[in-house]
Amino acid sequence: MPKSQIISKFLPTLLGIATTLIFGWAQFSDIPLLNALQQRAESMAYDLRLQAGITTEQTADSRIIIVDIDEKSLADEGRWPWPRNKIARLTDRLFDAGAIVVGYDLFFTEPERNMAQAIVQQLENSQPKAEQLINKLSKIAPQFDNDQHLADSLAGKDVTLGYLFHNENTAPVGQLPTPLQTLSTEQARRSGIKAMPNYTASLPLLQDSAAASGFVTIWPDPDGVIRRTPMLIRHGNHIYGSLSLNVARLYLFLDEVEINTSPIGNIDTVDSISLGGINIPTDGSGFALVPYKGPAGTFPYLSASDVLNGNIDTSSLEGAIVLVGTSAVGVADLVATPVDNIYPGVEVHANIIRSILDNDFPYQPSWADGANLIVTLGIGLALALLLPHLAPLTLLTTSVAMAAAVVFGNIWLWQEKGLSLALAWPLILILALTAVNITYGFLSENRKRSQLKNMFGQYVPPELVDAMSQTSENFGFEGESREMTVLFADIRGFTTLSEKLSPSELRTLLNRYFTHMTEIIFEHHGTIDKYVGDMVMAFWGAPLKNPEHAKHAIQAAMKMLERTAELKPILIAEGYPEIDIGIGLNTGLMNVGDMGSSYRRAYTVLGDNVNLGSRIEGLTKFYGAGLVVSETTMTGQDDFVFRRLDLVKVKGKTEAVKVYEPLCLKETATAELLDELQQHERGLDAYMKQNWMQAEQIFDQLKQQHPDTRIYALYQERINELRQRNIGSDWDGVYERREK
Fold first, then answer.
1. With 60 as the cut, is the pLDDT of residue 396 above it?
2. Which of 89, 283, 638, 730 has the fewest C-beta atoms lying within 10 Å of its C-beta?
3. Given this model, what pLDDT does residue 324 score?
4. What tens digit of pLDDT does each residue of 139-165 get?
5. Considering 428, 450, 472, which residue would you say is the last residue of a domain?
6. Predicted confidence band at 456 (pLDDT cuts at 50, 70, 90)?
7. Measured in whole angstroms, how far is the alpha carbon of residue 558 from the centre of its chain?
């Protein structure tokens, strides 16, 4: 196989493999644009997959209640921030109603001003000092210490306060809670948990009084949507837990949290967090996917003012976890999520807590990148090897089936196992590989069609070129041996005819004649080999294989004779001489291919059977037949009626061949014609048996009945000649034709 064909055969596969490797490399590339495109695509796929799993029948989870500092609360209780004694009263009301754990998605970072102390300070700076008033106010000042009131309320209750980690270059505010875990310097260096340098935490007084504190720091994805949240953050050598983690820990009456890690290279990546028997899967940095169960309002809401004023059914708080947040304009904590563009931040924590309690967490483990790479390479390599060998429709069907399998498999892992793997990137890869193969196929098809048109356009009809372009067969330049049928057609008496016409008239006549003959050959799936003077050479069975090449050749030859008969009176009326043609057909093995020199080449056939076809055409005038075919052409053609002509040895051949004259289709044969042929066969049988008298009688009778059929007179002449020669009993009936 030529090098160009080898390259052409394997190029689409190599392109597919290269595309797959590029996609695999892009998954770990540091190029910002690629990262952004990939993350954006995966985010969209993640959102669609998440939304598809949310049902309208989702019921509110009564285990988690959200107390909302809403517009109504501000209208009833005054503008925010509220005095901390009011927060203390709210805390007391919640626990009095039966709440188990209360989590504040609020910050208490600065001390609240004590009004009594403030007045005392002003009086001390005044002249003259009001000592008596200062003493009285100093005694009652503790009653106005709202921070202490809140601290007293928090004491002994399972309350978790919120605080914030950040990157701001400012002094730390407040006091951090006791860490979940303290690392050594080496452990901290290896830790994969996200580190934050600064914080804004609760007052030490409140921090010491609360049962726990948890950070509420959340980072959106680059598109501003909250899909994951940190469960752990490292500050220095200390690891701290989120608000949702600590609320769940208190609810489950647990004192410790177990952080499960695995070393990957030089990093200790987080695998999961254990709360008793509950496992919270995370990525390597300690982030968990937020398991949204519905849009905003999925959890029951109570207005904070209604709680303060006792306008609620306290049974709704019995045994519940309460999260206190705010949705009021100007102080609302609203974020964008996959399920809602305006979503209360407090519900993000609620979704995390619910999944912890249900032990039902989606996850994207630390090994997800490796799994995504394996999936990408597996799908890509499979399609790279398969698609180039498929027809366009099958290619598209296969690609759609592969994409459907990826989607259903990915959704099954998500819904049944909670595993989140890449979805968009494999689908984009499938689309890319499909596009690569379709584009290559289109360009290759156009190139192939152009090559075929350039090579065969002058030999075969356009529809045959199109049919050739639809197959994977290599029509080319390499010669091959193939069984085919060759046709030679010649204008009889062309030399005499050409002497009667001017060069211009002769050219016009030949062009007209060749146009009609070529049209017929093309209509019957033939290939024009060449025009030589008045001769047309054509063949069947190449470049496209044609199992009915002999039949189509006979049909074309009979049609050519019919068309020539139609042209005769028209040409005579126009002043041209009368024309007659003779056609010879032979079937057998022939060499076919693009042959010639480096200066000029042609797609042609060569071989002994081609030469025999030419010799058979030369017999047409001798036998007085318009069409003569060899026995190999006649064999198996049961749709036609043939007249056996002779057993003849043509010039240049050592073996005799049987030749026949196709007369018509069997279905159109008359009874008279069939009776004539039966007599003719009896005459030939007598002739071959040297029964000259019987043969002569039969051919004499046939000649009288059909005086225009030359073959009968020919056999009469031959019988007379053979009688005189007195041939022996070993005569084989072969007639040797010494002329071309």
1. yes
2. 730
3. 96
4. 665 677 788 989 999 999 999 999 999
5. 450
6. low
7. 51
What token pair was written down for 479?
């010669």
Considering the domain boundaries, does residue 738 fall inside one? no
pLDDT computed for residue 700 by the predictor: 94
The pair of structure tokens assigned to 678 is: 């039966």
Strands (E), 338-394: 343-344
Q: Which of 474, 431, 644, 617 is nearest to 538 (CA)?
A: 617
Cα 570–Cα 576–Cα 581 angle in degrees, nearest 5: 80
> Which whole-number Å values give the CA distances from 265 to 233, 297, 337, 716, in the listed order?
21, 43, 33, 105
What secondary structure, in 3-state letters, does 595-660 show? EECCCCEEEEEECHHHHHHHHHHHHHHHHCCCEEEEHHHHCCCCCEEEEEEEEEECCCCCCCEEEE
Residue 320 to residues 139, 150, 260, Cα–Cα distance (Å): 40, 21, 29
Query: If DSSP codes are grouped into helix, strand and coil, which group holds residue 692?
Result: helix
What predicted TM-score, i.e. pTM, was given to this entire model? 0.64
Q: What pLDDT, on a 0 to 100 scale, did the predictor assign at position 382?
A: 93
Tell me: pLDDT of 627 over 70. Answer: yes
User: 128 with 172, same domain?
Assistant: yes
For the chain, how many structural domains are there in total? 4
What is the pLDDT, as a whole number, of residue 594? Answer: 78
Residues of the domain holding 679:
670-731
Q: Are 283 and 341 in contact (CB under 8 A)?
A: no
Residue 50's pLDDT is: 87
Residue 445 lies in a domain: yes
**What letter represents residue 678's amino acid?**
Q
Q: How many residues does the chain have?
A: 740
Residue located via tokens 């790279």: 384
Contacts of residue 608, Cβ cutoff 8 Å, sequence gap at least 6: 588
- pLDDT (mean) for 704-713: 93
* Backbone dihedral angles phi then psi of residue 341, each to the nearest 5 degrees: -75, -25
> Tokens 């102080």 map to which residue?
331
Provide the 3-class DSSP secondary structure of residue 494: helix
- How would you class 373 by CB atoms within 10 Å of its CB: exposed for 0-12, middle for 13-18, buried for 19 or more? middle
Structural contact between residues 165 and 199, judged by C-beta atoms closer than 8 angstroms: yes
Contact between 423 and 447 (Cβ < 8 Å):
no
Instruction: Report yes or no: 279 and 272 within 8 Å, Cβ to Cβ.
Output: yes
Instruction: Quickly list DSSP for 87-155.
Output: HHHHHHHHHHTT-SEEEE-S---SPPP-HHHHHHHHHHTSSS--HHHHHHHHHHGGGG-HHHHHHHHHT
Phi, psi of 230 (to 5 degrees): -75, 130
1 pLDDT more than 60: no
- % of the chain with per-residue pLDDT over 90: 58
Residue 669 has pLDDT above 60, yes or no: yes
- The pLDDT tens digits for 250-309 are 999 999 999 999 998 899 999 999 998 899 998 889 999 999 988 888 899 999 999 999
Which residues, including other chains, have CB under 8 Å from residue 382's CB and lie 6 or more apart?
402
Non-local (6+) Cβ contacts of 723 within 8 A are: 692
Spatial contact of 375 and 422, defined as CB atoms under 8 Å apart: yes
For residues 455 and 197, the model is more confident at 197
If pLDDT is split at 50, 70 and 90, which confidence band does 453 have?
low
Check whether residue 298 and residue 152 sit in a common domain. yes
Instruction: Tell me: pLDDT of 83 over 70.
Output: yes
The single residue listed with the structure tokens 């609810």 is 251
Q: Are residues 442 and 523 in the same domain?
A: no
459 within domain boundaries:
no
Eight-class DSSP state of 414 = I
35 shares its domain with 161: no
Q: Residues 6 or more apart from 54 whose CB is under 8 A from it?
A: 292, 293, 294, 295, 339
